[in-house]
Design a protein that fits this description.
Helix content: 25-40%
Strand content: 15-25%
Number of strands: 23
Shape: globular
Structural class: alpha/beta
Largest sheet: 14 strands, mixed
Distance between the termini: 44 Å
Number of helices: 22
Length: 697
């Protein structure tokens, strides 16, 4: 039976229709717990009545923070039934992230369970409703009028290029996305859809919409493959077989782990007819490799999209695609889903010719309202476009190429390669991104490299360099940093090559499984990475990475010892200066024991802090710059930390030499030392809470 989404008009309306059509069919299953469509709809009605009594209604927002299981779907539907929008929160997320999301979303109510009550109450001052202890409503639920243009949910972005921001998603956006999924994926009530994603990510909503709006069964994994990187992936094939899964979506990191597992065990995923992979750049050779392992009975799709355009915008089907030279260097994300339009824009903001690299823009019914509470960012990213039938497109910040056959090739997310874009557009950094992409493709072609990334780093303020990072096969020949650098120099033949390649055990990832460029290590200087026989050549700037040779560990040890030695040296100098400049300031002869020893310890710590401050002033700026803040803010932060360390020695000595009744001098000291301390603290706060503009990387 085909459900008429236009007639139903809302997400929960589609689920209600499935409950009327097949009330006894299993809607959600997690382990031994399951809910039929009748039970799911009925429990959602009862919880909606409770939420309505708490003041939740049309135009409102409710945060939903529940663990894995069946109750989270009851809560999501209940919120929608009240006419409000839900804000999905992962209850196990870090405290700082929860506080940011709750402050930014400002929900009217937070739906959770007793297990998370205390932690979530501490994270925000919103009223809580615990689904496992809340009393039933006093009156039956009276559904309000809800339409396609009403807000359904707030998707928070993954935060890969800054703090997460909320995209305002209407019912019609998700209904349009659902119709595209239903047509391309061939969804039916007989499907069993596996839910592997975490609640906080847009794919979680996509999974339940695809299943419950179709009348299929949604099967929830007891383990969280998105967030739990130690989860035993070996249990996945058995779960897929036992639960008769037909459709599932994975992020790129998990797909790579699955490919390695299936290749080593020789097993497959019997019964799975569709596997989609997204959230990060997935190369064609990886897609074709997984397709070969699963066989022709399974469609393996590479999907691309953003939360701001309702999850998925394009797809590429690997079936029938022959392996070709260079497959390890391209990522094909294919054609738009029905109802979606995709463009590649040139420097003038209009569609570029086929074969030209430009910024990917998305149009169509999936475009959301914009960002919650950020009208300037909305105007910057959601722009007027005369070439689009709706006159409005989303600028993604991603670079791509529209090939002659109409297939979209994903190049890179510009901000992931070069860092926060600031006032630059993705087109403005095109040459630098292209250099990194070419180098990354070449690095992936090395037989010992399993995974690679090439990004810009700033080892010295104002000096940006390309650096490669490689996850290599254990014990493989030529897998050290110096050898990989030499290999790239040969392969690129005159193109811009990374100054170094750093072998790493694994690439650092964000919570969403995307590359975390801020956590990548800086390379060691070239002279510490090349083999002795090649050190002369390494001075040309083509040396290997931080883990490329034994010298890097020795270098860190020597640098650490030098820092300690200098700290002690400057501390001794401060102690000597104290006796010369502040005679009597550290005299404790009149202080009784044991307080005299405590004061001597205090003076020692003050001098050591002074020494550490001098060392930090000379060598700490690089570490501050590595965190990717604007240069002016980084300089002020560097000086603020230095002041916080060095000021205690002169301040304390001057205070002790001042008479208690010498108010002019006391006032001068208070203002000279404590006002700068306050300003330094404010600079540090600004540094911690800084985030790049939404549309600028």
């Amino acid at each position: 039976m085909t459900v008429d989404a236009e007639r139903t008009g809302t997400l929960h309306g589609l689920v209600e229709e499935q409950a009327r059509r097949a009330p006894a069919a299993v809607a959600v299953r997690c382990g031994e717990r399951e809910l039929t469509y009748r039970e799911l709809d009925g429990r959602a009605d009862r919880l909606a009545a409770v939420l309505a009594e708490r003041g939740l209604g049309p135009g409102g927002r409710a945060a939903v923070a529940l663990g894995r299981g069946t109750e989270v779907y009851v809560a999501l539907l209940a919120v929608l039934k009240t006419g409000a929008a839900y804000v999905p929160l992962e209850p196990t997320a870090p405290d700082a992230l929860l506080r940011h999301l709750l402050a930014d979303a400002a929900p009217d109510v937070l739906v959770t369970e007793e297990e998370h009550r205390v932690r979530l109450a501490d994270a925000g001052g919103v009223q809580l409703v615990c689904v496992d202890t809340a009393a039933d409503a006093k009156a039956p639920f009276a559904p309000p009028g809800v339409g396609p243009d009403d807000l359904a949910c707030v998707f928070y972005t993954s935060g890969s290029t800054g703090l997460p921001v909320g995209a305002l998603v209407e019912h019609r956006n998700l209904l349009a996305a659902y119709e595209g999924w239903r047509e391309v994926y061939g969804l039916t009530a007989g499907d069993r859809v596996l839910q592997t994603a975490s609640l906080e990510f847009d794919v979680f909503t996509a999974d339940w919409v695809r299943a419950l709006c179709t009348g299929a069964t949604l099967v929830v994994t007891p383990f969280n493959l998105t967030l739990d990187r130690t989860a035993d992936l070996g249990a996945l094939p058995a779960l897929v077989t036992a639960e008769r899964i037909t459709v599932l979506e994975l992020n790129v990191r998990t797909a790579r782990r699955l490919t390695a597992l299936l290749a080593s065990t020789g097993t497959g995923l019997p019964g799975v007819r569709l596997l989609t992979v997204g959230a990060e750049k997935w190369y064609l050779d990886e897609q074709l490799g997984l397709q070969r392992l699963l066989g022709e009975g399974t469609r393996v799709l590479n999907v691309y999209g953003l939360a701001e355009a309702t999850v998925d915008s394009t797809y590429f089907d690997a079936q029938g695609t022959a392996a070709a030279d260079g497959a390890e260097r391209v990522s094909l994300v294919g054609r738009p889903f029905p109802g979606t339009r995709v463009y590649v824009l040139g420097p003038n903001g209009t569609p570029a010719k086929h074969g030209m690299t430009g910024e990917i823009a998305i149009g169509g019914a999936g475009l959301t309202r914009g960002y919650l509470g950020r009208p300037e960012d909305t105007a910057r990213r959601f722009v007027r476009a005369d070439f689009d039938p709706d006159g409005r497109v989303l600028l993604t910040g991603d670079l791509g190429v529209l090939r002659a056959d109409g297939v979209l090739e994903f190049t890179a997310r510009a901000a992931t390669v070069v860092g926060p874009l600031g006032a630059q557009s993705p087109i403005g950094v095109l040459a630098r991104v292209r250099a990194a992409v070419h180098a990354e493709g070449a690095l992936r072609g090395h037989p010992a490299v399993r995974e690679a990334a090439v990004v810009e780093v700033e080892p010295v303020p104002g000096k940006r360099q390309l650096v490669g990072y490689a996850v290599t096969e254990p014990g493989a020949d030529g897998a050290d940093g110096w050898s990989l650098s030499q290999y790239l120099g040969t392969e690129l033949r005159g193109r811009t090559a990374p100054v170094a390649v750093v072998p790493v055990a694994e690439l650092p990832r964000t919570r969403a499984g995307k590359l975390d460029r801020t956590a990548l290590p800086l390379p060691a200087p070239p002279e510490h990475t090349a083999p002795r026989s090649a050190k002369a050549g390494s001075r040309s700037g083509k040396g290997g990475g931080k883990a490329g040779g034994a010298g890097s560990g020795d270098s860190r040890f020597v640098n650490g010892c030098a820092a300690v030695f200098c700290t002690v040296l400057f501390a001794a100098g401060a102690w000597a200066a104290t006796y010369a400049l502040f005679p009597g300031a550290t005299d404790v002869s009149g202080v009784p024991a044991p307080y005299d020893s405590l004061f001597r310890l205090l003076y020692l710590c003050e001098n050591l802090a002074f020494g550490a401050g001098v060392v930090y002033l000379a060598s700490g700026f690089e570490a501050v710059q590595r965190l990717g803040r604007p240069r002016r803010l980084s300089v002020l932060t560097h000086l603020s930390i230095t002041w916080l360390l060095v000021n205690w020695c002169p301040q304390d000595n001057l205070y002790r030499l001042t008479r208690a009744t010498d108010w002019p001098r006391e006032a001068a000291l208070v203002f000279a030392f404590n006002i700068p301390l306050m300003l330094a603290a404010l600079v540090l706060v600004r540094f911690v809470v800084w985030r790049p503009p939404v549309g600028k990387g």
